[in-house]
From TrEMBL:
PROSITE patterns: GLYCOSYL_HYDROL_F3. Keywords: Glycosidase, Hydrolase. Belongs to the glycosyl hydrolase 3 family. One of its GO terms (biological process) is peptidoglycan turnover. This is beta-N-acetylhexosaminidase. The keyword Hydrolase applies. It comes from Streptomyces longispororuber. It comes from the Bacteria. Coiled coil: none annotated. SUPFAM superfamilies: (Trans)glycosidases, Beta-D-glucan exohydrolase, C-terminal domain. GO terms for molecular function: beta-N-acetylhexosaminidase activity. It catalyses: Hydrolysis of terminal non-reducing N-acetyl-D-hexosamine residues in N-acetyl-beta-D-hexosaminides.
Length: 582
């Protein structure tokens, strides 16, 4: 544990007194959660120095802290913050030291988006766990809680004290491009139950949670990263579909709620984005639902609010709506100056600012950051990615793999009857923590279980040549496994599966993202992500080393008639593992 002249002070007896001693600029700074580039607080790589100078007007994280006095930082892989556990823990300690070297010395709230599944910023050797929809398929409240406890314990060891999770969105729209498998499912009550369990798990690890994306992002066909969606639910539909998980989160004492960049006319007839809507943030979330904790915006770098309202006004409007923290403003100097000017001109009162600063400080105090903001560097190998955590992740993942179809009892595969396997299909960009393309990871896992498995990538949109090559490679195989990714009507992935099925070789599809992928095949499974932990679990299920136990947390529409449900929520087949299973 580092100790120096800037060691953290004891928690102030009166946080209001601390607020009263801050300048206006320091108060505004406490409401900013910034990103910085680089793996090191004072000596980042040259390219990261250039990026910091371009976006923040400083060279390093330490300089950004001195300039903006931010209340927090958010870590990203693309900002080169997360190389390995020791580097990240050291960075956390060094930025805390930089913050506490200011006057007044206020510790940072270090945050991250580590949902797991398809959204993770910290990869191996950290433990990678199933994402929300996979956990929803597993159906175990205990597993959801334990996954969050493990995730939280590892984040805390790295100095991160808030995770922007869980997703409380009810994914009622299969075409949702931004939430999808980041949601626990399409059932409001089930989502509410798992949201509560995840909050409990993070709390047990000493990590603050944030329920998102209020008032609910589950029924949209527009990605708020690129445009401004509209949710067309009536007030009654919102109460029935979207509200239950957020009500459950508040009842569970969630530390923060994150707003969504979307329009909900039933909640705000003026059609302001929720992040900027006083009727939604203050009227619904604060007054009607009774949330008195922290409210944080979704990233202000997203086009859903940035394009229409500008990088300066969006910060002011969010605070006027009732938000406390401004997450990831793309031009923080512009945002900070706009808020300072709004206070000086009377558009925002300083008392309004003080209330938000106090909430930020209260959360830091509850997390013990005033007493102990640093993390020890000894023992990181076991604390982050230790054997017990990895074993738990594998066990939890086995319970999530969902068997949707098994015509003729093809599964489980047997090394005696299905010696030669071919693994083909979509190889989406690897999420953090994946060691390679899903076809290669799956083939390697099957090889370790006694099969001879060859991987051939056919791409996200297999060409005629790729299909022909896959058909040729299927000759003489005992079975072909096809990874599919977000298959839609007319998708070339349909043609790949059909061509392989026409060879007479048994075909098994594995939907590695949304479970709605249903090309014609003898057997079909859903893994809900293509991270190593899910693919290894699927391999054990395919090989009869584990019983498929997952149940659909969302309905699967009929491919020829989307208005009809082919497989309802709760569907999932099973079989007994081989007696020789490990």
């Amino acid at each position: 544990m580092p100790h120096d002249s800037h060691s953290a002070p004891q928690a102030p007896a009166d946080l209001r007194s601390l607020v009263s001693r801050m300048t206006l600029e320091e108060k505004v700074g406490q409401l900013l959660v910034l990103h910085v580039y680089g793996h090191h607080a004072t000596d980042p790589d040259p390219a990261d120095i250039e990026a910091n100078e371009r976006e923040l007007g400083v060279r390093t994280a330490a300089e950004a802290i001195a300039k903006y006095r931010p209340g927090g930082l958010i870590y990203f892989g693309w900002a080169h913050n997360t190389r390995d556990p020791r580097q990240l823990a050291t960075l956390s300690n060094d930025v805390q030291r930089a913050a506490l070297g200011q006057s007044p010395g206020v510790p940072l709230l270090l945050t991250i988006d580590q949902e797991h599944g398809v959204v993770a910023r910290v990869g191996a050797p950290a433990t990678l766990l199933p994402g929300a929809m996979a956990l929803g398929a597993g159906g175990s409240r205990d597993d959801v809680r334990e996954a969050a406890r493990i995730a939280g314990a590892e984040l805390r060891a790295l100095g991160v004290r808030q995770n922007y999770a869980p997703s409380a969105d009810v994914n009622v729209n299969p075409a949702n491009p931004v939430i999808g498998v980041r949601s626990f499912g399409a059932g409001p009550d089930a989502v509410a139950d798992f949201v509560t369990a995840q909050i409990e798990g993070y709390r047990a690890a000493g990590i603050a949670s944030a329920a998102k994306h209020f008032p609910g992002h589950g029924d949209t066909e527009t990605d708020s990263h690129s445009a401004l969606p509209t949710i067309h639910h009536s007030r009654e539909q919102w109460e029935e579909l979207d509200a239950p998980p957020f009500r459950a989160a508040l009842a569970a004492g969630v530390d923060a709620v994150m707003t969504a960049h979307l329009v909900v006319p039933a909640l705000d007839p003026a059609m302001e984005p929720a992040t900027l809507s006083y009727p939604i943030v203050t009227g619904v979330l604060r007054e009607q639902l009774g949330h008195d904790g922290l409210i944080v915006t979704d990233s202000l770098s997203m086009q859903g609010v940035r394009t229409t309202y500008g990088d300066d006004r969006v910060a002011v409007l969010a605070l006027k709506a009732g938000v406390d923290q401004l997450l990831h403003p793309p031009r923080p100097e512009l945002a900070r100056n706009a808020v300072v000017e709004a206070v000086r001109e009377g558009e925002l009162s300083e008392e309004r600012l003080d209330a938000s600063v106090l909430r930020v400080l209260e959360l830091k105090a509850r997390l013990g950051l005033f007493e102990d903001p640093y993390v020890p560097l000894d023992g990181l190998d076991e604390a982050v990615g230790g054997g017990a955590h990895r074993a738990a992740a594998d066990r939890i993942a086995e319970g999530t793999t969902t068997l949707l179809r098994d015509d003729g009892g093809l599964l489980p595969l047997s090394p005696d009857r299905h010696v030669e396997l071919l693994v083909v299909g979509a190889d989406p960009v690897s999420p953090t923590g994946t060691t390679g393309p899903p076809t290669a990871v799956l083939a390697t896992a099957l090889g370790e279980l006694g099969f001879r498995a060859e991987a051939v990538s056919t791409g996200m949109e297999p060409s005629k040549e790729a299909v022909e090559a896959a058909v040729a490679a299927a000759a003489g195989r005992d079975a072909v496994l096809v990874t599919t990714y977000d298959v839609t009507a007319g998708d070339a992935q349909h043609g790949l599966v059909s061509a392989l099925a026409a060879t007479g070789v048994p075909v098994v599809t594995l939907a590695v993202r949304t479970p709605q992928d249903l090309p014609a095949a003898a057997a079909a499974l859903a893994t809900y992500s293509w991270t190593d932990v899910e693919l290894r679990a699927a391999a054990r299920v395919l090989a009869g080393r584990a019983r498929p136990r997952g149940r659909l947390p969302v309905p699967v529409p009929h491919p020829d008639d989307p208005g009809q449900v082919l497989y309802p929520i709760g569907h999932g087949l099973s079989y007994e593992p081989y007696a020789t299973a490990d």
